[in-house]
Amino acid sequence: MTQPKTLEQLLAPTGDPAWVLIEEGFDPLRETSVESRFAISNGFLGVRGVRATTRGTRWVAPARTYVAGLFDTPDTTYATPGLVPAADWLQIRLLVNGEPLVQHPGEVRSHRMTLDLRRGALLSESSGLTRADLNVHLKTLRLVSMSERALGLQLIEMTVEAGVVDVTVEASFEGVGLGLLSDRLDQDLGVWHTAHSGKGLAMATAAALQIDGRDVPATALGPFKLTWSWTTQPGQAVSFQRSVAIARGDVKDVDPGHEARDQLDRGQRIGWRGVLVAHEAAWSSRWQRSDVTVEGDAKAQKALRFALYHLNSAANPGDERVSIGARALTGDDYRGHVFWDTEIFLLPFYTLTWPEAARALLMYRFHTLDAARAKATGMGYRGAFYAWESADTGDEMTPTQAVGPDRKIIKILCGTQEQHISADVAYAVWYYWQATGDEAFLLDAGAEIVLETGRFWASRAQPEADGLCHIRGVIGPDEYHEHIDDNAFTNVMARWTIRRALDVAALLRKHWPDRWASLAQRLKLNEVELKQWQNVADVIATGLDPTTGLFEQFAGYFALEDIDLALYAGRSVPMDVVLGRERTQQSQVVKQADVVALLGLLPEEFAGTSGVANFRYYDQRCSHGSSLSRAMHGLAAARLGQSDVALRYFLETADIDLSDTKVAIDGGVHIAALGGIWMVAVFGFGGLTIRDDGIAIDPHLPASWLRLAFSLQWRRSHLKVRIEQARTLIEATLESGEPMTIFIGGEPYELRPGSPVRRSAEAALN
């Protein structure tokens, strides 16, 4: 029988360096970025990675805790709803003669913080904590449970190395009243509500301290504040445990305190060890289903593990009323709002490794469908026009103005003009349906989303005298150009959405005629309208030049000033700052992947060598002014066989959140870029594509990658794919599920449990 681990063993990080991220010492200029990078989350709770020893009276740095879906609007002019931080439940101070042991983090002689990616835990170790003849060694662990998402756990082990003094440990909550109005504040339970949105929040807590294995009674000093006092002895071992349970209430006048207490009671019944064991088991399961391994490139492996850690941390399959914001729950940039990032850069990962999470994220779009309908109606269109920035209600949350780099007020038009969001949502729904075959989702939610977004585009694209339907006055993914006509990405994605809507109608009519009749009646959808949709799809302007194979990014783009970006290499600011907004708008400089994004999402739209031609043209004109851009370029390059270019983009994307030279992550990690890293590895280098009758593999490994292996789920089958550089050997193993088809080099092979398929890609092509 396996012996339970000691506290010291539990506080030790995973030994494999490929599974840990380490931060040594103290650098005040990088602290906020470290907090983002080392954040812990479970899709419901997120806690920034604030150091455990920054706890002096003048140097308190609250560890912000974010609760998914807890939005409110501050009382400021032009305010939009944003995530409201909960109280910091990790506050600990060690007092010697009434004075903090640590006044400033720079006083700590040695400090190491370790993000244990395998276990989903943040650990720290500090030595040289010395004051008034007291010398202590400190180890800590914190986590938010992956198995019971309402629970958080804090463990501290303090070893007294020298000193006989009177000390006090003070455990409290910081920021109890910030941003929330108090309804109830007891010793171990707090209940609050937001000022405007009607949301409720409750936090219940329990804490204990032992010295050399003996429980020490605490003294209560007030709500959420306990102290323990004793006289130290050399060699003394002090352990502290604190649990917290957090509940969100979405209905006004309903007290979430009961749920918080119930959650805490469940955690107390199994004990903190039981909470930790269940948490680690849940993380082990996630890694089994989602891990990607690379041999031959340690930096790429670390980048993938970091990306997968945050991707697995960001989702909560148990809550379909929330989605993932642009910084997940690691920071408050963009106020926690949801963008197209989720559908285009995150849903592929969840769909193929965690379909339960993908389904919940798509159900969020279904629950906000009425808001999308209202937005479309308000602008004179039919169907559903989703919010460019969405919070909990699905209403448009994009600010209408901002202060530009030149300190002038500028209008923000994304909320009304960046309309491709409705195609992006439909794309994610269809992709999920193809990969999972989830009939219940299609019938209950997915079909309605696709039909209503298809209806939007059929009303948005207007016929003109040239016989074509045009979509005028939009913003494409390249946000440097506004008020443009016939953006290729928008129009082609709109056409694709309309055609998928027609496919959905045909699918329901054939297989579920009763459900189709009911849905069509409710949506007032008839054959005349469906015929009109088909006519629009047939004649939408796309900007494709059949002679060159190039898509013109938008009408008139090719006539704009062509600027050589190589002349601006090494710049530290975006190109619209270098050139100014007006010149940028009159140039071919692209902020982020636009036509290249179309190439990444719908490669079938690029016949023959058209993909290569478009990538070559737009790659040299893209300034990559968004964290989303390089990953999409990497995906397109890998699929085109340009693995060296793709690897450069892969590593540059990883550097956004991992490089110590970056300071742009103080507001949270770039979760969509991390999703893009997975896409480049699996879709690009691994060559994975999803078909309606199976999966296909056409790998393009970088020269330095000896092997690539990844796990995925297709329908209800779990499989693992391994690709070797030598002979481009592909091995697919069906670990569970029904037999399925895998295509290698275009040739189909039946994959059965216990019978791996091993083929050389070159042999399959011959």
From TrEMBL:
Pfam families assigned to the protein according to its UniProt record, in alphabetical order: Glyco_hydro_65C (PF03633), Glyco_hydro_65m (PF03632), Glyco_hydro_65N (PF03636)
A GO molecular-function annotation: hydrolase activity, hydrolyzing O-glycosyl compounds
Glycoside hydrolase family 65 N-terminal domain span: 22-247
Active site, renumbered: E479
Gene3D superfamilies attached to this UniProt entry: 1.50.10.10, Glycoside hydrolase, family 65, N-terminal domain (2.70.98.40), Maltose phosphorylase, domain 3 (2.60.420.10)
Residue numbers binding substrate: W340, D341, K591, Q592
TM stretches of this protein: none
Segments forming domain Glycoside hydrolase family 65 C-terminal: 690-751
UniProt keyword terms in alphabetical order: Glycosyltransferase, Hydrolase, Transferase
UniProt GO BP: carbohydrate metabolic process
The Glycoside hydrolase family 65 central catalytic domain, residue ranges: 305-679
Family, similarity comment: Belongs to the glycosyl hydrolase 65 family.
PANTHER family: GLYCOSYL HYDROLASE-RELATED (PTHR11051), PROTEIN-GLUCOSYLGALACTOSYLHYDROXYLYSINE GLUCOSIDASE (PTHR11051:SF8)
Protein name (Swiss-Prot/TrEMBL): Glycoside hydrolase family 65 protein
Lineage of source species: Bacteria, Pseudomonadati, Pseudomonadota, Alphaproteobacteria, Hyphomicrobiales
